[in-house]
Design goal:
The complex is a heterodimer of chains A (262) and B (451). With 262 residues, chain A is mainly alpha-helical. Chain A contains eight helices and no strands. Chain B has 451 residues and is an alpha+beta fold. Chain B is built from ten helices and 22 strands. In chain B, the strands form six sheets. In chain B, strands 1-22-21-3-2 form a five-stranded antiparallel β-sheet. A four-stranded antiparallel β-sheet of chain B has the order 4-20-10-9, with no helix packed on it. The chains are: A mainly alpha (262), B alpha+beta (451). Chains A and B meet through helix 6 and helix 7 of A and helix 2, helix 8, strand 7, strand 10 and helix 9 of B.
Chain lengths: 262, 451
Amino acid sequence: MTESTLFTIAFALYVGALIVYFASLFVRREKWTRNGLALAAAGLVFHTAALILRTVVSRHAPFTNMYESLSFLSWAMVLALVVFSRKSRVPRLGPYLMLIVVGLVALASSPLMPKEATPLVPALQSYWLWLHVSVTLLGEAFFAVAFISSLLYLAADTEEKKERLDALSYRAVAVGFPLFTLGGLVFGMVWAYRAWGRYWGWDPKEVWSLITWFVFALYLHTRIVMGWKGKRSAIIAIVGFLAALFTYFGVNYLLAGLHSYA
Amino acid sequence: MRSAGKFFASVKLAIVLFILITLASILGTLIPQGRSAAEYAARYGGLSGLFVSLQLTRLYQSFWYLALLLFFGLNTVVCTLSRFGPKWRRAFGPIAATDAQTLMTLKVKSRFRLALPAAAAKDRIAGLLRSRHYILTESGRVNGIILLARKRRTGLFGSDIVHLGLLVILIGGFISGLGGRRADVPLLEGQTADIPRAAFQVRLDKFETEYYPRGEVKDWKSTVTVLENGAPVLTRVVEVNHPLAYGGYNFYQTSYGWDWDSPRLELEVRKRADPAFSKTVALRVGERMPVDDADVDHVVVRQFIPDFVIGEGNKVQSRSQEPNNPAALVEAWKGEERVFGGWIFAKFPDFGQGHVAGQSALAFVLKKYTAAPYSVLEAAKDPGVNFIWLGCLLVMAGFFLAFYWPPREIRVVLDEVQGKVEVTAGGQAAKSRETFQSEFDRIFDSARRPA
């Protein structure tokens, strides 16, 4: 099987998961939620295979252009979903997170995204590519979980639901924030030092990573020191994810800089 | 002084600073940084003067942005220190006065009686707590004993370690900014260059560009030799992502090009009237090269352009360093008479043979054009960088402690009542309360069970 076949199967399974998940919202059956998760997990298996195959064929890390990094980010989000579904007891996480995943995978599959694996330019030939991009995107996937649970928080009606969603948001940030710091900022600085001779250069992508970092630092400080919870916390987490999204996406298309690879 | 201390100890200041630094940073990504005055004038018109005077065009090095960072650093220090004492006492201090009623108000609690002497009951509970890696402190009280069991105490200091790390990073950043040196060192093959303020030299032995089969650049490799007092010390290949470290400097492969100012050229001289005539001369720019012929005495190349394009104001310029459209401005002389003059193009040999060329009996073909490749190495010295790595290490270690090493505390009061021991225990955990609850339950279920 080729990488694109595996990727298409994963896409189909994700769409299936999305449909089943949304059905679960209306029939309110746990079984449907479980089936949705099972489909998403099955998609994850094929998606993993697709990523591995692409790595083997292209002989470089599978996140060197927009198609590849979108694919990896959506993979990481499904992984985050699988990790958090068991413990979180938030049945609505699945449907809405899968909505983002399907959106990203659709974007990756769109004809606008060049899909052929191109040889690596000299600047990207480094094992730091693996560490920097994978850990950052993994962190951003957990921010996506915090984003969804925060949105759900704003829409939730009962105190019990709110409490669970608030806790889930925090747990997702507690995973995502250290990962994002490590991958995006620390590994980014180490790589920048090796490749460009300086660990920090105020490149727009660097600055936006720092901005994202500050937003989540704000989230933690208002929450832990000032005792903000609930609505205000949720809004900061939403802003944080949007900042992360802009760092990942917007900077490339809207601001000029050195990070013009993906 | 005290009010300044209070000002910097406030978390509200931290939050204001988070927001201000974030907004300022966003502004710096919206206004392109470090461009020329002309570019700003064209982009922002009358506002450009204001932008420059507010230092918005080099915002991240501006006085006020650095002041924000400095405030942020001070705030971090004072906040951390002002909270450190109580935390230290919580982690390592003696037992505060505790009674059974207070413990019963905690969420995680247990109360039961044991038909054992107080000392035996204490040993039993202490043993169970120790087996779960709790560290115990004991104090006697009237008719009873208090046990304080704590574990993962370092977890309390996670945020302090993160703050320390940030401070170290900030210090490193200032050191880099003040003490960092960087310079571009362009080198032709065989050339040697002095490194500013260093007691050694570097020589470029070889520079090569490697290509993928389909033509994309795979790598730039500079073979570099370090010389001390003229004697070679070591030879290394410098590539992108593989700098050479020597004598406190790092040498990075940053750019490359060809020395098109003095290319080696080959011209073929032809005659329109005589297709069989062909004569090739090798020459350099500006060099008068004799052609031993009745129609032409000598030729000269006035100018060479690797990637010819007519730019603004009809000026001839090179679009890039790549020889995409090599062109030479050629003149040919017969005595005092110019018999040919005009641009010739290697890739378009038939294209307009110049002004004079129309009437000229001669034609020229630019057959070969080579230039020595050069490599640009960046020599950088950054005395702050080790602070940065240390700071990053501290930040990550602090995160681990803060998020995944939650401290736990269990207090046990043992009271002798009617020949039995009444045990009251209460626990507190910063995080993952469910796991803590189950640990707590296991400990005290075992304690309660008859031996």
